[in-house]
Every structure is written in structure tokens, then in C-alpha cells.
Design a protein that fits this description.
Blueprint: H1 4-10, E1 15-18, E2 24-26, H2 27-40, E3 46-51, H3 55-67, E4 70-75, H4 80-90, E5 94-98, E6 109-114, E7 117-121, E8 133-138, E9 148-152, H5 153-166, H6 184-194, E10 200-201, H7 210-218, E11 223-226, H8 228-236, E12 249-252, H9 259-272, E13 275-281, E14 288-292, E15 306-307, E16 312-316, E17 330-335, E18 342-344, E19 359-368, E20 374-379, E21 383-386, E22 389-392, H10 393-401, E23 407-412, E24 415-420, H11 426-437, E25 444-448
Helix pairs in contact: 2-3, 5-6
Length: about 475
């Protein structure tokens, strides 16, 4: 099997990335960095990578993959209390973090610094890690949930090459990092371009900042990716009036985009000669499971498309029988090499092998049309996606209950509804949860109610709570 080292070696003379200051970094520099950092810690450690769209974060991530260190990707701005909770749960050997956060770990040993990042040692004990385990990603956005997705090296590479195939990625591509590196979709953009020797445009700026657009234009960015909220913002920014002659590909995932916006961006892409891809995925499948060919976007509005190369879908009824009829809903099950090994909820779980065996029950209800295109029609689990972050409503509820005992959460994509028995605390609750999740306050609605609806056994009747 090809390795990250082989890939970096293949493109060692090419430009790996350009940062916001216009500095270029080669694949050869990534190889050299990986060799250097590999010398300072000889064991195979567990390392927390506090990720952002910067060269230090990227160099760290690629070096961990090359040296077969097991990294947990986290938001570089993750709330300190949540970070300490994860450190206590998993006891990592090392943390790779921006220099500005090192002072949070006063008893740690600094063992390496470069590119604005520091490697500190917290724990010198050897951690038992499964041979195939390559990477860990969080399941619930920024809640600091200890439940992690365990990904193998084969998961990562299989998904990267599959995405590169259907998007027809070449070494000439110059994608801009419009999504976070710790987020599975954002990381998949990086992986699928690195395996083809492309050049990443590393931007920490948001869409509302002119520096983002200046970089996209000046560095001749060829592609950008976004979640539904991204496209709502682009629509408000009058994206159709922007002069972006080098932009060729736009991809969307991270939740269902409004059908009207799909039509709007598909028509704009058609007029400008761009390609607009609607895609579907989950962290448990590394990133992508399906895509809608850009030529079919207007004909199949609302569809998640077809399985990615090497993948397959099945629809299952409640009894576990496969549904073969068109137009009939069932749980969407995905099969492919990119299906994760399973979950981890403690350090001991990092020694577990492949529990999924290439099969993932997505928790989404879907149906297929006569042309083989799939449509999501519902969801079984208590998850929503807010601005591309998958948020566990139960975990969010627990965070809130630490301060506000009589409280429940429900919601839909891009909006969480919080119900409380306490009066006059609405703004306080919104600010608290927005800060804890690291998500803009506009995504939360807090309502005071007189009684939380429950059944006879005390179970909350979430369906009785309005989400409109």
C-alpha cells in the first residue's frame, strides 16, 4: 500500500502550500520536517494536534501520518476546559499546538518548535495503539465529547484517492482552505489534493473578510468547498457578481443545502463554466460517501447522488431486510474501504481493531430513484449539523445541564432550539452554549416554557417541542 511518505516523495519538487503571507512551502520541506520531528520522539505516541489552516498545523499533520504517530485533530481554539477534559480522558503523550497556547500547560516539557507551533510532552508512558490506527476525529463538532472516530491509514488514503478520482483532481489544482483542518470535510480537501501533488492555499480567514477573497484571486485559486451555511453567506455576498476567472470547482457537503440555493449555484456554475458538486458524507466514513455529478445537479436537485468510486449503498428496513424498490425509504447503509474502524471513548479503545468491517449504518433514512440516485428523507439519530459541524443534541444538553438543570435541546440543521424552565436566562444560555461549542450565537434559539413534556416513564417527548 502506498504511504504518505511515498506520496510526498513523488512530488518533492512541487509546491505543497502557500500561506497568507505569500510564502511557499514544498513537499520536500514536509519530508524534511517529518524526519526532524521523528527524531525527537522515538516511540509511537498519541498526539493531540490543535489544528488551524496554517503551515505549522499542516506540517504537523503530515509528519504524524508519515511517522505513524496517532493524532487526534482538534480545533486550535477549542475551549480550554474542554481540551483539559479530553487530555484527562485520553492522557496523550504529546500536544502539537500554536505557540500562543503553550502557557496553558505549565508542567509540560517543550521538545520541539517550528513554523509557529510547539510540541510539548505531557505523558511519557507508552500507550498501546492498534497497528492500523492512523487518525482520530471528533464525532460531535466542538462539544469536547470523548467519543472519537478511529480511522486507519487505509481509510484515509482510500477516501482521498476516491475523491480525487471523481473530482478529477490533478497537480495543477490550487484549492483554498475555506473549511477547518480538524473537520473531516476540511481534512478531506487537504488529503485528496496532497495525494495528487496539488498546491494548498492556506487561509485562516472567513468568507466575510476581504483578505480571503484577495488571496483566492491573487493566488489563482481553482476550487473552494463549503457547508450549507457557506452557501447562504455566498448568496448574501452576491457571489454571482464576483470576478473569479481561475475558480473551476465548487463542492458542497456537511448537511442538506436548500433546493433553491442548489439551483442558484448550479445555474451560476453552468453560466461560468464551473463545476458545482453536491456531496454527502460522515466522519465515520472518513469523509465522503457519495457525490452528485455536476452535469446532473439541476436534473436531480436534492439528491446526494451516487456512491463514490469503490463504495456501495444499500437501504435496509427495520427488520434488517434490504429494500430494492425505488421510492421506498429505509436506513442508508454504506460499504467501502473508507469506513472507519469504529469508535473510541477511552484510551483503552485505541487498541481495538476493525469493528465495522467496511460497513456503516448511517442513521439517515433515504430512498433511491429509478436512475440510481439517492435522496435523504429523514434522520434516525439525535444529531444536527450546524454550519457544517455535526452536533450531538444529547451531549449539548449535558453541557447545559451542568448550569441549568431543567433544560432540553432539539433542532434541525443550522438551528438548535433550547427549552428551559428558567425565566430571564435566555441570552445567558445562548452565550454559554455558543462559547462552549465554538459556533456563532445566531445558530441558537432559547425559549422559556412552563413544563418539559415527558411520558409516563419520564422520557422527554422531543417531538412535542416546536422547532419552527
Amino acid at each position: 500500500m502506498i504511504s504518505i511518505k511515498d506520496i510526498l516523495q513523488n512530488y518533492k519538487l512541487s509546491v505543497l502550500a502557500v500561506d497568507e503571507d505569500g510564502n511557499s512551502y514544498s513537499y520536500s520541506q514536509a519530508l524534511s520536517f517529518a524526519r526532524n520531528i521523528g527524531k525527537v520522539y522515538r516511540e509511537r505516541p498519541l498526539v493531540f494536534c490543535l489544528a488551524e489552516n496554517s503551515i505549522g498545523s499542516l506540517m504537523g499533520y503530515l509528519s504524524f501520518m508519515q511517522n505513524r504517530w496517532v493524532a487526534l485533530m482538534l480545533d486550535a481554539k477549542l475551549d480550554s476546559e474542554l481540551l483539559q477534559g479530553l487530555v484527562g480522558k485520553y492522557q496523550p503523550n504529546l500536544i502539537w499546538m500554536p505557540d500562543s497556547r503553550v502557557q496553558e500547560f505549565t508542567n509540560a516539557k517543550l521538545i520541539y518548535q517550528d513554523y509557529g507551533y510547539s510540541l510539548i510532552e505531557l505523558n511519557s508512558d507508552q500507550i498501546h495503539l492498534h497497528t492500523d490506527l492512523g487518525l482520530l476525529l471528533t464525532t460531535s463538532g466542538s462539544t469536547g465529547s470523548p467519543k472519537l472516530v478511529r480511522l486507519s491509514y487505509q481509510n484515509l488514503l482510500a477516501n482521498a484517492f476516491s475523491i480525487a478520482e471523481y473530482l478529477d483532481i490533478t497537480a495543477e489544482e490550487r484549492p483554498i482552505t475555506s473549511l477547518p483542518m480538524y473537520y473531516s470535510f476540511g481534512l478531506s480537501v487537504i488529503n485528496s489534493h496532497v495525494v495528487k501533488g496539488a498546491t494548498l492555499l492556506l487561509s485562516k480567514r472567513g468568507l466575510m473578510e476581504k483578505e480571503f477573497w484577495n488571496m483566492l484571486k491573487e493566488q489563482k485559486g481553482t476550487s473552494m468547498s463549503g457547508v450549507p451555511y457557506t452557501f447562504e453567506m455566498l448568496h448574501r455576498l452576491r457571489f454571482q457578481r464576483m470576478n473569479l476567472p481561475d475558480l473551476r470547482t465548487i463542492t458542497q457537503a456537511g448537511g442538506k443545502l436548500n433546493d433553491n440555493l442548489i439551483e442558484f449555484f448550479a445555474l451560476h456554475a453552468q453560466k461560468t463554466g464551473q463545476r458545482f458538486f453536491v456531496m454527502y458524507g460522515q466522519t465515520e466514513a472518513t469523509a465522503r460517501m457519495s457525490y452528485l455529478p455536476y452535469q446532473q445537479t439541476l436534473d436531480k436537485i436534492g439528491s446526494i447522488g451516487m456512491p463514490i468510486p469503490g463504495g456501495r449503498f444499500m437501504l435496509m428496513d427495520d427488520l434488517g431486510n434490504e429494500i430494492t424498490e425505488t421510492g421506498k425509504g429505509g436506513e442508508l447503509v454504506y460499504l467501502g474501504e473508507n469506513v472507519s474502524l469504529g469508535y473510541a471513548e477511552s484510551q483503552d479503545d485505541l487498541l481495538l481493531g476493525d469493528e465495522n468491517q467496511g460497513c456503516l449504518a448511517t442513521g439517515d433514512i433515504a430512498q433511491v430513484d429509478s436512475d440510481g440516485y439517492y435522496y435523504i428523507v429523514g434522520r434516525k439519530k439525535r444529531f444536527i449539523k450546524i454550519f457544517g459541524n455535526r452536533v450531538n443534541l444529547d451531549a449539548s444538553e449535558q453541557l447545559l445541564k451542568a448550569l441549568y438543570p431543567d433544560i432540553v435541546c432539539t433542532g434541525r440543521d443550522d438551528k438548535m432550539y433550547i427549552y428551559t424552565l428558567e425565566s430571564g436566562k435566555e441570552d445567558e444560555i445562548r452565550s454559554f452554549i455558543a462559547h462552549k461549542l465554538g459556533i456563532h450565537i445566531s445558530a441558537f434559539v432559547v425559549r422559556q416554557i412552563d413544563e418539559i413534556p415527558k411520558n409516563n416513564s419520564g422520557k422527554v417527548l422531543y417531538a412535542h417541542l416546536s422547532i419552527e
